[in-house]
Amino acid sequence: MKGIILAGGSGTRLHPLTLVVSKQLLPIYDKPMVYYPLSVLMQAGIKEVLLISTPSDIHNFERLLGDGSKFGIRIEYKVQPSPDGLAQAFILGADFIGDDSVALVLGDNIFHGAGFSDLLERAVQKVEKDHVAVVFGNYVKDPERYGVATFNKQGNVRSIEEKPENPNSNYAVVGLYFYPNSVIKIAKGLQPSKRGELEITAVNQYYLKEECLDMQILSRGFAWLDTGTHEALTEATEFVKAVEKRTGLKISCLEEIALMQKWISPEELQLQVKDLKGDYYDYIKQVVLRIKK
């Protein structure tokens, strides 16, 4: 399976913060926002990643992440000329995906919770073995902002509706999607919505109609943060800060995930961070020392 991070858009709701820098490069406590979605793909065991962004921002992502080799992965980059909907990612990424299945994560979504890696691994297996799509749902107080799922008595998804005025459920479809290779053909066949976009909800509705959609509900103790507003940015920073201060462990530390996945060795990582300063790299140095003991 391959992975795509969609980190485009102009971030107008965050102006003036995003007038000269991509929203996904803004800090969430101790690391750039894009680290969080990239960590999701890495936790899912995905080593080939395509990052899609705007013509003006793409080179900053390249400067930050490089070719991915320092994390034991491969990162490619693709320009999104205009933001024409989330499903456009599969059209732009068609050559990158090739004949593989694919996971899409939105660049401004943050996930954290116990057992998340196991959830991700099961999603990958279900897509690759059963050729079904897997999406995730989370209970929210403002479902009208999202794609909303309703369920039948058996607990299976009955419908998914994009930003309904009067939602029939409080379960939002979050910004993390796993699809078989057929998603490329489906995306190419979509017609723009009334908003002029290729909607990811239309993709999910297609798989639902074909009875090939599985939704995993994130538990009540799980955190899903959509950082699209100034308030949400602050809340995300406070959340990450609180968890890291309380536990002494970093959330979405890419180097640590690469180490745990055995994609890089302790010796390689030690050389990488030897001359780097700051709390983030001090943490990595301590992780390396613990593993080498």
TrEMBL record:
Its cofactor is Mg(2+). The keyword Zinc does not apply. It comes from the Bacteria. CDD domains: G1P_TT_short (cd02538). It catalyses: dTTP + alpha-D-glucose 1-phosphate + H(+) = dTDP-alpha-D-glucose + diphosphate. InterPro entries: G1P_thy_trans_s, NTP_transferase_dom, Nucleotide-diphossugar_trans. Signal peptide: none annotated. Its EC number is 2.7.7.24. This is Glucose-1-phosphate thymidylyltransferase. It comes from Nonlabens xylanidelens.
